[in-house]
Design brief:
The structure is a single chain. The protein is of the alpha/beta class and 472 residues long. The strands form 5 sheets. Strands 3-2-1-4-5-6-11 form a 7-stranded parallel sheet, sandwiched between helices. Strand 1, helix 1 and strand 2 form a beta-alpha-beta unit. The radius of gyration is 23 Å and the shape is globular.
C-alpha cells in the first residue's frame, strides 16, 4: 500500500515510519524542509520525501494522487503564533481539499481526549481539526490520547526534569487533575492496527492505559521508578502564568509549550470508553510498565525521537539550506585550527558534544550562558540532545540547532537559537589531518557589535581549550 505520512519529522512520525516500512508499505513522507528529514539507508527503497507546507496550498500538489491512506500528525500548539488554532484549521482544510482529489480510502488522525465540557484552547483546536477531517470524502479514524509516556515525549521529559531537579515541590493545584496516560508503544499499535481497517472507519476512539492518575501521582510514580524520594505539596495560589513560568524555568520545555500544557492540565483527560481495545485486540500497558520501557530506552541511549528536535522547541525559522552556507561578509569570525592525532577519535568527540557530555572546556560558562538565555526568554541549554553519540540535520543540541552533520565528510555546522543581537554559527570540519573550528557572528546594529566584544575575552580560552580537547 502507498501511505502518506504527515508530520514525518515529528515525535510520532519518526517512530511510526520504521513500523510502516517493516509492514512492506511504500511511504510518502511530508516535510516542510526535506533537509531536516533523516532517512536510514535501509529505508530508502521504501520512502519518498516531498516538501509540503499545509499552510501553502500551492505546495500540496506534490502529494501523489494514488495514495491508499494517510496519517494526519500535524499539531502546532507550541508554535510561536498565538493564533495556532486558526493555523491548524487552515492546515486541515487544505489537507482535506487535496486528499479529496486522491484515491485515499482513509485518514487516521491522532488527537487529544476531548470529553470535558470546558476545553482548553489546545484541545478545542484538536476537536476543530477532527470536525474538518470528517468533512472529507474519505473515511476518518480519530484516535484521542491524553498524556503519552515514552522516552523523548514532551510530557515524559517534563516529569523527568521535575523529579530529577526538585526533591521538594511546591506545585499548583492542577497537579490533582486526573488523566489516563498511555505508553508510546500502545499508541503506535493503535495507529498501525487502525490502518485500512473498515471497523474503525468514520469513528472516534479514546485510547489510554488502564491507570487513571493525578499528575501528582504520575510524578511520584516516576520517583519510585527511579528510586528517589520526593515530597510534593500543592497550593491554590499559583496562577496559570506563574505555573507556566514554573515549568519553563525548571524543565527543558519552551514557554509556549508550558503555557499550552498548563491550560490543558486543568482539564481531566479520561477515556469515556475502551471499546477500541477489544476491537483491535490491544491490551495497553500500565503507567509503571510504560515508565520502565522509557527508562530502558534512555539508559541504552536508544531514543528514536524527541519533542526537543521539533522546530517548535526553539526559535529557528525557515529552511536549513538558507542558513547552511555560513556567511563571511560583515561578520566577526573566531578561526582556529590544529593538527589531529586520530581522525576517528576526533570525529566521535565532535559528534558527542553538548548535552550530558558537555563542551569539553569551560562547561560552567556554557551553563551560565544558557541560564542567562533562559532568563531572557530563550531556549537555554536544558534541551540537551536526544542521543549521546548520534546527531542529524535539524536536531536540537543545547541552545544550538544542527544545520549540517556529515560524519564521513567530518563536518558539523550549528546555528545558535539563543537570544542574541545577531546570528551565530559554530562550525567544525576536518580537512586532511587538520581540524578547523570557526565561530561566526553576524551582528545586528551597535548592540550586536558590543555583544561580540564583550564575550571576546572568553573566546581565547573557551574555544582554544575546546579545540585541544577534541583532539587529545
Amino acid at each position: 500500500m502507498k501511505i502518506l505520512l504527515t508530520g514525518a519529522t515529528g515525535y510520532i512520525g519518526k517512530r511510526l515510519l520504521p513500523i510502516l516500512v517493516a509492514q512492506g508499505h511504500e511511504i510518502i513522507c511530508c516535510a516542510r524542509d526535506k533537509h531536516r528529514f533523516y532517512c536510514p539507508k535501509e529505508f530508502e527503497k521504501s520512502v519518498t520525501v516531498i516538501e509540503v507546507d499545509f499552510l501553502k496550498p500551492e505546495t500540496l500538489s506534490a502529494i501523489p494522487p494514488d495514495i491508499d491512506a494517510a496519517y494526519y500528525l500535524i499539531h502546532s500548539m507550541s508554535g510561536s503564533a498565538s493564533n495556532y488554532d486558526e493555523l491548524e484549521s487552515i492546515s486541515a482544510l487544505n489537507f482535506v481539499e487535496r486528499i479529496n482529489q486522491t484515491r485515499a480510502k482513509q485518514v487516521i488522525y491522532l488527537s487529544g481526549i476531548v470529553n470535558d465540557k470546558s476545553l482548553s484552547k489546545h484541545l478545542s483546536s484538536r476537536k476543530a481539526v477532527e470536525d474538518i477531517l470528517n468533512m472529507g470524502v474519505f473515511a476518518t479514524t480519530t484516535l484521542r490520547a491524553g498524556i503519552i509516556v515514552g522516552s523523548g515525549s514532551a510530557s515524559f521529559e517534563i516529569i523527568r526534569d521535575l523529579v530529577h531537579k526538585l526533591p521538594v515541590m511546591i506545585t499548583p493545584r492542577w497537579l490533582n487533575t486526573k488523566c489516563q496516560p498511555i505508553g508510546i508503544p500502545d499508541v503506535l499499535e493503535f495507529l498501525m492496527k487502525s490502518l485500512l481497517n473498515p471497523s474503525t472507519y468514520n469513528q472516534s476512539f479514546d485510547i489510554g492505559g488502564p491507570d487513571i492518575l493525578t499528575y501528582k501521582e504520575m510524578l511520584l510514580g516516576f520517583a519510585k521508578a527511579t528510586h528517589v524520594k520526593r515530597w510534593i505539596y500543592t497550593v491554590p495560589i499559583m496562577t496559570p502564568k506563574l505555573s507556566s513560568y514554573w515549568l519553563y524555568f525548571v524543565t527543558s520545555t519552551s514557554y509556549k509549550l508550558a503555557s499550552a500544557l498548563v491550560s490543558s492540565m486543568k482539564v481531566e483527560v479520561i477515556c469515556s470508553d475502551n471499546r477500541i481495545n477489544d476491537l483491535l485486540q490491544v491490551t495497553p500497558m500500565t503507567y509503571e510498565q510504560a515508565l520502565s520501557r522509557a527508562l530502558i530506552k534512555i539508559n541504552k541511549d536508544d531514543i528514536p525521537s524527541s519533542w526537543k528536535d521539533a522546530m517548535i522547541s526553539g526559535r529557528f525559522k525557515g529552511s536549513l539550506m538558507d542558513y547552511r552556507k555560513v556567511p563571511k561578509k560583515d561578520c566577526f569570525i573566531d578561526r582556529r585550527k590544529m593538527e589531529i592525532e586520530n581522525r576517528d577519535f576526533t570525529i566521535e568527540r565532535i559528534w558527542s558534544i553538548g548535552g550530558e557530555t558537555g563542551w569539553y572546556y569551560g562547561d560552567w560558562l556554557w551553563s551560565l550562558r544558557g541560564f542567562i538565555d533562559k532568563l531572557y526568554g530563550g531556549v537555554g541549554s536544558r534541551r540537551g540532545r536526544t542521543n549521546k553519540h548520534d546527531i542529524h540535520s535539524g536536531d536540537a543540541l543545547d541552545f544550538w540547532r544542527v544545520l549540517y552533520a556529515n560524519k564521513e565528510e567530518g563536518k558539523l555546522i550549528l546555528y545558535a537559537e539563543m537570544k542574541l543581537p545577531g546570528e551565530a554559527w559554530l562550525e567544525f570540519k576536518i580537512i586532511n589531518n587538520t581540524l578547523y573550528q570557526a565561530a561566526t557572528f553576524r551582528p545586528k546594529g551597535v548592540w550586536g557589535k558590543l555583544y561580540w566584544y564583550s564575550v571576546l575575552p572568553f573566546h581565547g580560552f573557551i574555544f582554544k581549550g575546546m579545540l585541544e580537547k577534541l583532539i587529545k
